[in-house]
Amino acid sequence: xxxxxxxxxxxxxxxxxxxxxxxxxxxxxxxxxxxxxxxxxxxxxxxxxxxxxxxxxxxxxxxxxxxxxxxxxxxxxxxxxxxxxxxxxxxxxxxxxxxxxxxxxxxxxxxxxxxxxxxxxxxxxxxxxxxxxxxxxxxxxxxxxxxxxxxxxxxxxxxxxxxxxxxxxxxxxxxxxxxxxxxxxxxxxxxxxxxxxxxxxxxxxxxxxxxxxxxxxxxxxxxxxxxxxxxxxxxxxxxxxxxxxxxxxxxxxxxxxxxxxxxxxxxxxxxxxxxxxxxxxxxxxxxxxxxx
Amino acid sequence: xxxxxxxxxxxxxxxxxxxxxxxxxxxxxxxxxxxxxxxxxxxxxxxxxxxxxxxxxxxxxxxxxxxxxxxxxxxxxxxxxxxxxxxxxxxxxxxxxxxxxxxxxxxxxxxxxxxxxxxxxxxxxxxxxxxxxxxxxxxxxxxxxxxxxxxxxxxxxxxxxxxxxxxxxxxxxxxxxxxxxxxxxxxxxxxxxxxxxxxxxxxxxxxxxxxxxxxxxxxxxxxxxxxxxxxxxxxxxxxxxxxxxxxxxxxxxxxxxxxxxxxxxxxxxxxxxxxxxxxxxxxxxxxxxxxxxxxxxxxxxxxxxxxxxxxxxxxxxxxxxxxxxxxxxxxxxxxxxxxxxxxxxxxxxxxxxxxxxxxxxxxxxxxxxxxxxxxxxxxxxxxxxxxxxxxxxxxxxxxxxxxxxxxxxxxxxxxxx
Lengths: 292, 417
Ligand SMILES: Cc1ncc(COP(=O)(O)O)c(C=O)c1O
Hints:
By secondary structure, chain A is an alpha/beta fold. Chain A is built from twelve helices and nine strands.
C-alpha cells in the first residue's frame, strides 16, 4: 500500500514544512499553508497545539502558546484541516503533529460533547486513540507524528491508524539503539523522521554530524528518510539531501517568520522556495539509489 | 518489561525517542543496583543516609496534639532529615546511582526548592556538577532555597514560561535532558515521570515507612489505625505508605491541596487547587499515564496551592492506582486550613512544619474536629515531610492577607531591621 505521504517522495526530495495550527489564528494558518505550497512545500505538518510541548524549543513553544491563546482546540483543528482539504491550492498531504494526551483524551471529550448537546448524562467515552484517528481521517489528515509516544507505547494508536488508513511516523534519534531502530522500522509507515541532532526543535546555524551518522544507519531501509530539527537555510537543505536524506523537514525557520509578523505569506513562500531549491541541488549530487 | 512499568493502566514511558535509550539504561541500572544491590549500592546508600543524612529520623509522640484530638498522634520527623525535608532520601539515592552509572552531570527541577536543595546538597557531597530548573513564581516565593542551591554551587535556571511553577520546570528539565542525555542524569523529584522513576523514587523514599512501621511497633506495641501524608507528586506519600500497604487494617490517607476552592474555572482554564488525585482525569503528562488536571480537550490546567511543593497538575501513577483500588483515600484541605495548621503545630509542639506538611496536619483537625468527619482511629501517624523555614515569608504574607487569628502580628516589627 502506498500512502499519499510516501508518494510525495516519488520524484524529488520533498520539503515537509511545519506550522502550528492557529498561530496566530486559523485564518492566517490557511493563508500561510497556501504560501508554503506555492513556495514548493510537498507535505504540510500541521501542529495541533498541546499545553506541554516537551519536544519543542522556544520558537515552537511560543507558536503553540499563541495558537492556544487564540482558542485552537482539536475540534477547531479538524475544521481547519477540512477547510484546507477543500482548498484547491492545497493539494499536498497534511500530517498532524501533536502530543499523546490530546489524542487519548479525545474519545472522552467526544462523549462529553455529545451528552452536552443532547442534555443527557455522559455515556462512557470511547476509550483510547480511535476516536481521534477517526476524526482526523474524516477531516483529511494523512498521517500522525506524536513526539512523546515512543514505539513501545504505540500499539493502540498504530491499530487505530491502520484501521483508518493513516501513516504513523516515528522519530529516530541520534541516541536510538539498533535494537530500538528495528522495532521502530517494523511499525513505521509513510517515512522515517530522522532527528538531526539531540535536543528540541529550533533553527540552527549548522548541520550536526549526528545527521550523517543517523542517515548511515538507515541505508538499508526502504522507507524514505526525512531529516528535521535545525534546518533553516538553503545550504543545510543541500548538505542534508546530498548526505543521503530523501526529504527535509523545516519548522522553526518558518515559525520565526510568522512570529516576526511582517509580510508573512510572501516571506514564507520565499523561504520555502529557497529550502526546496537547496534540497533539489543536493539531490543532483547523489546517484539514483538502486532498487527505487 | 512494559507490564512492570505500569500500575494497572497507569505509569508507562511516554517520552521523546531521544530519551528512550537513557530510560532503558536507567531501568537496567535500577534493577541491578537498587533491586539487586549490585556492588553493594543499597548498602552504601543506607550508610550515607545515616552518616550524611542523619537517619533514622524520630517518630515522636505529639503530646498536645494527642490531647487536642483525644487519641495518640505520632509525628514522623522528616523535617529533621539533613536539608529539612524527605527530599534528600531520593536525591541522595539518585545522585549516587548516577555516579554508579558513570554519568557526569546532574540536572533537576524543583517546585518548593526542597528537591532542588537536596539535589544540590547531594551533588556537592558526591562531587557532581548540578543544574536546577525552577519556575519564576516559585523562585519568588522560595528565595531561601534558591540561595541554598547557589551556595552548594548549583546553577539555578529560572523558567519564565506559563505560570512559572513545577509543571513548567519539569518541561524545561526534560528539554535539557533530551539535549544532553548522553552524560546527564535527570533527578526527578517525586514519584512521577516515566518508568522507572515512580518505582525508583518510591523505593528510595520507602525508608520513611520502614522506620515508621518499626518505630510505631516498638513505641506502642502495635500498628497505627491510620497513616496520613500530604500529596503533591506523592513521594513523601508513597514513602510513608509503602511498607503499610500490605497491612490492610491500616488506613492510608493522602492529603492534597484543595487550594482556594475545588471547582475548575472553565473560562480561565485554571484549577484553583492541585487535587489531581481527588478530581483529576486520566491522561498522559511528563512521561506517565496518571490522573491530571486537564480540560476536556486534554490541555493541562495550571494548578494552585499556597504551598509550592504541592502546586502540580499531576500525581504519581502508583498513587492514582492505589486510589482507584481503594487502598489509599484521597482527601484535600484548603489553603486557609493549611496555614492554620502551620501555626497550630508551631505553637503547640514547637515544630515549624513546611506548608506542604501543614496540609497533612490540617486534615487531622478537619477529620477529628471539623467538617470532614472521618474515623482516623485511636493511633495516627502523620508524616511531617519537611520543615517550614523556607515558607516564613509566604506564611507571614498570606496570614496577614487573611487576618488569621492563629497568626502572630508581625506589623510592629516592620522597618526595625
Ligand atoms: C516538605 C515537602 N513536603 C512535600 C512535598 C510534596 O512532594 P511529594 O508529594 O512528592 O512528597 C514537597 C515538595 O517539594 C516538600 O518540599
